[in-house]
Write a structure and sequence with these properties.
There is one protein chain. The chain contains six helices and ten strands; from the N terminus they run E-H-E-E-E-H-E-E-H-E-H-H-H-E-E-E. The protein is α+β, with helices and mostly antiparallel strands. It has a single domain (34-213), classed as Alpha-Beta Complex (Cyclic Phosphodiesterase, Chain: A).
């Protein structure tokens, strides 16, 4: 058992409200509780000007089918689900991640296939670019991240994951409106975009872990 009074531990008499209206209508995957730190392991993607131009074209076209589609403000490729850590687990969790990821080298992947996703409870829909090359290296990384998650009895990543960079989102399950004709038009925009084959060939240089408001980086060799 952990000692009482750790920073970030909950006051048993303190109630926390969670108003989805403050988050663009998004709904939490699990209830907010003081002392619970939402944690996520991912590969950060720094968008270049050309990528943002492509994103603007895709979002503009998607809005002709679903007007509420909004562009993502930051971009990444997930290596874990969002899991919950207690405050006193963060440092040992990060240490274990650092040890397991230390041997990995930088690598490329290609993310050029437009795909529509929904989250597990169908409260949000996403448009993403799925990885078409580099899958093996990503699975190796996930395998090591999963081992760390298992050490802390936390949920591991999805079986047969569809690795992707999310581009845009909307509230609710609107996949039916975005798939089919809309999806084909979005893929045409990607395929016809100038230098898209170079633009969507991504070199990953670091892994990052976000836990609450804390960020930890693990450079690839």
């Amino acid at each position: 058992p952990a000692p009482v009074g750790l920073p970030g531990d909950p006051d048993p008499e303190e109630a926390v409200s969670d108003d989805s209206a403050r988050h663009g209508g998004r709904v939490r995957g699990f209830p907010h509780e003081r002392g619970n730190w939402a944690t996520h392991v991912y590969l950060p993607y720094v968008a270049q000007e050309e990528f943002l131009e492509l994103l603007e074209l895709l979002v503009s076209r998607a809005r002709t089918y679903v007007p509420s589609v909004a562009a993502m403000e930051e971009f990444h490729l997930s290596l874990s689900q969002c899991v919950v850590l207690r405050y006193h687990w963060i440092d040992p969790f990060v240490r274990s991640l650092r040890e397991r990821l230390a041997a990995f080298h930088r690598f490329f992947c290609v993310a050029d296939q437009v795909k529509v996703y929904t989250n597990q409870n169908k409260t949000r829909t996403f448009i993403g670019l799925e990885v078409s090359a580099g899958h093996f290296q990503l699975l190796e990384l996930v395998s090591e991240v999963d081992r760390v998650l298992e050490e802390f009895d936390l949920p591991t990543f999805y079986k047969d994951p569809s690795f992707h960079i999310s581009l845009a989102w909307c509230v609710g399950d609107l996949s039916g409106k975005l798939e089919g004709q809309c999806l084909r038009e979005l893929q045409d925009i990607v395929d016809e975009f100038e230098d898209s084959s170079l633009l969507l060939r991504v070199q990953w240089e670091q892994i990052r872990c976000k836990s609450g408001n804390k960020y930890f980086s693990f450079p690839l060799r």
